[in-house]
Amino acid sequence: MADYKSTLTGPGEVNILRLEIEAHGKLLDISALVADLTIYEDIFSNTMSGYIVMVDALDLINTLPLVGEELLHIELETPSLKSKIKKTFYIYKLSSLAHKKRMTGYVLHFCSVELINSVNSKVAKAYKGKITSTVQSIFTDENFLASKQTLVSDVTSNDYPFVAPFWTPLQTINWLTTKSLNSRGVSNFLFFENNKEFEFISIDTLLTSKPVRDYIYSDVGSDTTLGPSASLDQKYNFVEQIEMQNTFDYIRNLSAGMYGGVLYSYDLTTKNIKRTSYDYIGDFGKNNHSNDKPLRSSSLIKKKIASLHFLDKNDYLTGSYKSQKIHDIFLQRNSLLEQISAFKFNIKVFGRTDMQVGQMITYTMPKNTEIVLKEINTDSNSEYFTGKYLVTAIRHQIINGKHMMDMEIVSDSFAKEITL
Q: What does pTM read for this prediction?
């Protein structure tokens, strides 16, 4: 294990407090054998995962042995910070095995224990009451997820009685997110794991939370911009690299229902057909967003019929003839979830153990143009890329004692209105 640092001397430093494999009643510290430790977290993934690249001269595959029944204990800490990443994972796969003389290289893949519990169980049980209570019950039940971790939940405004038809626990919870309404009657719940806890939470709650850090991109390094006397905290704010593979996708957004849609619902009891429509621009001001202005102008070419849906409904399925309003918000949920993925890109920054998915940040990006004389005293920042963003995914990577993060950040809105 590397030497422990009580204070931070450079950005990206990390203390590996624990990196152990638990196998067949034995604990083994593998920190000296790991060339690369990578951990993934994503608000659109129920559980965390990752891999470690092993450079093994101890022949652990045969001496432990490694057979896919092991636990991996990880505890990481950024020096000077109280916040830690402390997790136990299940090693489920070994790949890329290569021998060279007395050295063996391979990759160990790991995932959350809750995922292993989920694939090994099925839910066939009747539930009633608030959806939040149902999710908490499945989360802690020893027959289902059996999780010992903390679950942070928003309280749903609606009840939903149902019988789970032999779904896995995670399938059941994911289905319940589509039925869940927050205090404003909006259906945009997610269930995910970050590096501290699990969350069953409305996107509204995430978007309205206070930004935890300010990041800025510059075409020169932090030392040049800030000077040698800059604090380490200031250097953490600098973005090392930006990647934009698919910043926006008009055709996907259109067909997925972001800009609008039409729903025909057929009531199996009354035999009535109901037509419902949704418009993105018209609904924008009624919902919470990261910034104030829509991602598209009011002159955008869009027709609601581009996203057409047909659903049947039967309110008696819930045990009483009480409308669940799910069909009334179906199109809105489609749009809101698509909005949160419509404008995104990746930034590479120095790693910190107090950063996690689901947090809001502010991001400042200068215009990538030459500054002429008359612009010297004007704001040179991008009017559209600068603003508040939601962190939706993080890849933590630790190589040679340095912690870097590739963060996927998204915004469902712009700070300035698009004018044509």
A: 0.92
